[in-house]
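A quick aside before the break. I want you to see a complete sequence-to-structure record at least once, exactly as it would be stored in a machine-readable document. Don't worry about memorizing anything.
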Amino acid sequence: MQPESTTQNEPKDTPKLVTVSVNGTPVTVPRKLTGEQLKEAAIAVGVPIQVDFNLYRKEGANYEPITDEDEITVHKDEQFRCVAADDVA
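That is the input. The structure line, written in tokens, reads:
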């Protein structure tokens, strides 16, 4: 018997990546992640935010809040906004 090949399982274990927009900047992330992970990924590519900022997902004409602990599934070209807690704009 031949040993089982591990390369066949790699695509299943590798998370699917999608590119979303955070404050107008493209950010490539796994399809499933937390609000905090999305903010950390945005910071890593140079979006001028901090991890304690509030994150919002664009839903039609509105923005819905996402907490750091929320587990979300993102979609290609989805838009997010991240602002300081005292920013009312």
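Two observations worth writing down. The CA atoms of residues 56 and 65 lie 4 Å apart. The first strand starts at residue 17 and ends at 22. We'll return to this after the break.
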